[in-house]
Amino acid sequence: AQYDRSEDVNAAPGTYPSYEFRWTVSDFVQALLDSGCELLLLEEFGDKQPDWTPIPVAGLPGSLILAGRKKG
Prior knowledge:
Helix content: 10-25%
Strand order of the largest sheet: 1-2
Number of helices: 1
């Protein structure tokens, strides 16, 4: 999705677009597998509520680590 973030930088409306992508964990894992890699590690961590967001995300992972190795 594309959003206009001009109000954050005192620019004219429509001059500073921001993009947001919502990928699931399975999207990342599938991309790794589709590239011919084997999955070595998948770990989610960081479940504290960040100070900068009013959205209740406490308990959800804040970061994701994937490690893979090319087959062959």
